[in-house]
Amino acid sequence: MKCPFCSNLETQVVETRISEDADFIRRRRQCSACEKRFTTYERPDVTFPAIVKKDGRRIEYKRIKILGSMNLALRKRPVSTEQVDNAIERIEEKLLSLGLKEVPSNRLGELVMRELKKLDKVAYIRFASVYRSFEDIDEFRALVDEVRK
User: Fold this and answer.
1) Cβ neighbours of residue 98 under 8 Å, at least 6 residues apart?
2) Residue 2 falls within a domain, yes or no?
3) Backbone dihedral region of 76: left (phi > 0), alpha (psi from -120 to 50 degrees) or beta?
4) pTM recorded for the entire structure
5) Rounded average pLDDT per 10-residue block, the chain, 149 residues
6) Residues 6+ apart with CB under 8 A from 134
7) Is the Cβ–Cβ distance between 2 and 8 less than 8 Å?
8) Which domain holds residue 29?
9) Fewest CB atoms within 10 A around its CB: which of 29, 83, 130, 148?
10) C-beta atoms surrounding 73 within 10 Å
11) How many angstroms separate the CA atoms of 139 and 129, rounded?
Protein backbone atom coordinates (compact mmCIF):
# COMPACT_ATOMS: atom_id res chain seq x y z
CA MET A 1 0.00 0.00 0.00
CA LYS A 2 1.42 3.37 -1.04
CA CYS A 3 1.83 5.99 1.69
CA PRO A 4 -0.61 8.88 1.11
CA PHE A 5 1.92 11.35 2.55
CA CYS A 6 5.20 10.53 0.78
CA SER A 7 4.16 7.88 -1.81
CA ASN A 8 6.59 5.32 -0.45
CA LEU A 9 5.53 1.78 -1.39
CA GLU A 10 6.71 0.17 1.84
CA THR A 11 4.19 0.35 4.68
CA GLN A 12 3.55 -1.96 7.59
CA VAL A 13 0.30 -2.95 9.23
CA VAL A 14 0.61 -2.04 12.92
CA GLU A 15 -2.96 -2.78 14.01
CA THR A 16 -5.92 -4.69 12.57
CA ARG A 17 -9.50 -4.58 13.79
CA ILE A 18 -12.66 -6.18 12.51
CA SER A 19 -15.76 -3.97 12.61
CA GLU A 20 -18.50 -4.75 15.11
CA ASP A 21 -20.71 -6.30 12.46
CA ALA A 22 -17.71 -7.95 10.72
CA ASP A 23 -18.46 -6.18 7.43
CA PHE A 24 -15.00 -4.69 7.01
CA ILE A 25 -11.49 -4.74 8.42
CA ARG A 26 -9.79 -1.56 9.63
CA ARG A 27 -6.01 -1.49 9.40
CA ARG A 28 -3.60 1.08 10.83
CA ARG A 29 -0.47 1.31 8.72
CA GLN A 30 2.84 3.04 9.20
CA CYS A 31 5.14 4.22 6.44
CA SER A 32 8.70 2.92 6.70
CA ALA A 33 10.09 6.12 5.13
CA CYS A 34 8.23 9.06 6.78
CA GLU A 35 6.86 7.01 9.73
CA LYS A 36 3.43 8.62 9.48
CA ARG A 37 0.39 6.49 10.19
CA PHE A 38 -2.80 6.17 8.19
CA THR A 39 -5.91 4.01 8.16
CA THR A 40 -7.18 1.71 5.42
CA TYR A 41 -10.43 -0.23 5.21
CA GLU A 42 -10.83 -3.60 3.58
CA ARG A 43 -14.32 -4.41 2.30
CA PRO A 44 -15.67 -7.09 0.01
CA ASP A 45 -15.81 -6.00 -3.62
CA VAL A 46 -19.48 -6.18 -4.56
CA THR A 47 -21.46 -4.84 -7.48
CA PHE A 48 -24.17 -2.42 -6.51
CA PRO A 49 -27.21 -1.88 -8.70
CA ALA A 50 -27.15 1.00 -11.19
CA ILE A 51 -29.11 4.06 -10.09
CA VAL A 52 -31.81 5.15 -12.54
CA LYS A 53 -32.28 8.92 -12.42
CA LYS A 54 -35.64 10.64 -12.97
CA ASP A 55 -34.67 11.52 -16.55
CA GLY A 56 -33.88 7.86 -17.34
CA ARG A 57 -30.09 8.08 -17.17
CA ARG A 58 -28.32 5.21 -15.46
CA ILE A 59 -25.37 6.03 -13.23
CA GLU A 60 -23.03 3.96 -11.12
CA TYR A 61 -23.74 3.83 -7.38
CA LYS A 62 -21.12 5.84 -5.51
CA ARG A 63 -20.82 5.69 -1.74
CA ILE A 64 -19.10 9.08 -1.69
CA LYS A 65 -22.21 10.77 -3.13
CA ILE A 66 -24.41 9.34 -0.36
CA LEU A 67 -21.82 10.36 2.23
CA GLY A 68 -21.68 13.89 0.82
CA SER A 69 -25.48 14.26 0.85
CA MET A 70 -25.75 12.95 4.38
CA ASN A 71 -22.89 15.11 5.65
CA LEU A 72 -24.52 18.19 4.13
CA ALA A 73 -27.79 17.42 5.90
CA LEU A 74 -25.92 16.64 9.13
CA ARG A 75 -23.75 19.77 9.04
CA LYS A 76 -23.29 21.14 12.58
CA ARG A 77 -25.44 18.35 14.04
CA PRO A 78 -24.30 16.09 16.93
CA VAL A 79 -23.87 12.89 14.90
CA SER A 80 -20.57 11.00 14.83
CA THR A 81 -18.76 9.81 11.73
CA GLU A 82 -19.20 6.26 12.97
CA GLN A 83 -22.97 6.68 13.10
CA VAL A 84 -22.99 8.02 9.53
CA ASP A 85 -20.78 5.14 8.33
CA ASN A 86 -23.11 2.63 10.00
CA ALA A 87 -26.14 4.27 8.36
CA ILE A 88 -24.48 4.06 4.94
CA GLU A 89 -23.65 0.40 5.60
CA ARG A 90 -27.35 -0.27 6.27
CA ILE A 91 -28.32 1.54 3.07
CA GLU A 92 -25.82 -0.51 1.08
CA GLU A 93 -26.98 -3.76 2.69
CA LYS A 94 -30.55 -2.92 1.71
CA LEU A 95 -29.50 -2.09 -1.87
CA LEU A 96 -27.70 -5.42 -2.17
CA SER A 97 -30.51 -7.39 -0.54
CA LEU A 98 -32.97 -6.09 -3.14
CA GLY A 99 -31.16 -8.27 -5.68
CA LEU A 100 -31.88 -5.84 -8.51
CA LYS A 101 -29.59 -4.69 -11.31
CA GLU A 102 -31.17 -1.22 -11.29
CA VAL A 103 -32.76 0.88 -8.54
CA PRO A 104 -34.70 4.11 -9.09
CA SER A 105 -33.01 7.14 -7.52
CA ASN A 106 -36.16 7.90 -5.53
CA ARG A 107 -35.86 4.49 -3.82
CA LEU A 108 -32.29 5.31 -2.83
CA GLY A 109 -33.42 8.75 -1.61
CA GLU A 110 -36.08 7.12 0.56
CA LEU A 111 -33.46 4.80 2.09
CA VAL A 112 -31.27 7.81 2.90
CA MET A 113 -34.21 9.67 4.44
CA ARG A 114 -35.10 6.67 6.60
CA GLU A 115 -31.57 6.52 7.99
CA LEU A 116 -31.40 10.29 8.55
CA LYS A 117 -34.70 10.17 10.41
CA LYS A 118 -33.16 7.65 12.83
CA LEU A 119 -29.98 9.71 13.25
CA ASP A 120 -31.23 13.27 13.55
CA LYS A 121 -34.66 14.80 12.94
CA VAL A 122 -33.26 18.18 11.84
CA ALA A 123 -30.99 16.52 9.26
CA TYR A 124 -33.95 14.47 8.05
CA ILE A 125 -36.00 17.64 7.49
CA ARG A 126 -33.07 19.35 5.75
CA PHE A 127 -32.57 16.44 3.36
CA ALA A 128 -36.28 15.89 2.73
CA SER A 129 -36.93 19.57 2.01
CA VAL A 130 -34.36 19.49 -0.80
CA TYR A 131 -35.02 15.94 -1.98
CA ARG A 132 -38.79 16.35 -2.22
CA SER A 133 -38.56 19.85 -3.77
CA PHE A 134 -41.31 21.44 -1.72
CA GLU A 135 -43.38 23.96 -3.61
CA ASP A 136 -44.93 25.73 -0.61
CA ILE A 137 -44.75 26.09 3.14
CA ASP A 138 -47.69 23.71 3.73
CA GLU A 139 -45.70 20.76 2.39
CA PHE A 140 -42.82 21.71 4.66
CA ARG A 141 -45.16 22.09 7.65
CA ALA A 142 -46.63 18.63 6.96
CA LEU A 143 -43.11 17.14 7.08
CA VAL A 144 -42.31 18.87 10.38
CA ASP A 145 -45.63 17.70 11.83
CA GLU A 146 -44.81 14.14 10.73
CA VAL A 147 -41.48 14.29 12.57
CA ARG A 148 -43.08 15.66 15.72
CA LYS A 149 -45.43 12.66 16.01
Assistant:
1) 49
2) no
3) left
4) 0.64
5) 95 93 90 96 86 94 93 93 93 92 93 92 85 72 78
6) 140, 143
7) yes
8) 11-42
9) 148
10) 24
11) 9
